[in-house]
Amino acid sequence: MKKVALFFLALSLFINCDKKAQVLSTIEIKNPLNIDREFETVEIDISNFEVKHYKISEENSEEKIIFQLVDTNFDGKNDVLLFQPKIEANSTKKYLLLSSHQKQDAVVETCYSRFVPERTDDYAWENNRVAFRTFGPVAQKMIEDGVKGGTLTSGMDAWLKRVDYPIINKWYKKAETEKGAYHKDHGEGLDNFHVGVSRGVGGIAVKVDTSYYFSKNFTSYKTITTGPIRTSFVLTYANWDANGKEITETKHISLDYGQNLSRYEVALKGTDTISVGLTLHKKDGKTSANNNWISYWEPLDDSELGQGVVASDAYFINSEVYLTSKKDESNFFTNLKVIGQKVIYYAGFGWKKSNQFKTQTDWESYLEGFAKKINNPLIIKIL
After folding, report:
1. 202-213 pLDDT per residue, tens
2. Which end is more exposed in the chain, N or C (fewer Cβ atoms within 10 Å of the end residue's Cβ)?
């Protein structure tokens, strides 16, 4: 009898707590494609709510849905809520945004990024599938001053991880006591991806006549958010010259949970088009292209690697392979329109050894599906 009484007491407390939750809005999400959708992030404006804690749930379900709050304008108040629904093909679901009596349970910041001053001045970012980094002004000045250990490039480096937990801090920490530690695979992956002055995986250039011009290292950064759903940050570059054209460039980069591609929203002045590149390394891989994506699949040490760039119909123009005898300057480019002084594209990679993609066909199917989704986004209505 005592156990029964305790059960009903607990049930009563649960019901009373649940009554404190207030429905703030109903979110209707429609999938217009004939494929199931997941790992696509929905952004909900919460700037008008004066709520301490939130909760997201599917209508008529008590299953917990992980979400992330973001203060996008740094005013001390969260104004966007992020979550990733699962929507079956050609279907519609409704979700409830509620005020809650308690804070969301602690979650791992799988989508993570930070400035790395202990390794000169990298900026690194990752999620549960991939990791990247790029290089700052100190690394540039070291090269310009002839100091060993610098890096001069605005290309994007790929860190080939094969675990789903964060590795950035761990790898950099290990490198403090063992020089070049992350260039060896200790079971979690490694950095064996060479960038040099190439575009790496998704760096940009401006083409004038038959030549490509690009910026140097980023000059400043601002981290916007890290968490279970997304990391995002802004990189600013010094104005640079493209054969007489002065180019102004700022990159807003984000990486969401479950994705292999980072999203780049680049603010630009001085050009109507840009070229987004994939380094061709030893030129022993295979280039492929479709209406919205380019791919480079290559052998890399004891495995294989696929690089890719995807853009929507609005931005995509065409693609071209640029081959040269100059070290690290051979790239596979996609040419994109700049619309309203902005261009949006996605760039990333898939490493065979991570067991995410077994073949070139698997990788290109991923890019094709990704392109189809960004051209046919989830339809969201706030009811």
Report:
1. 999 999 999 999
2. N
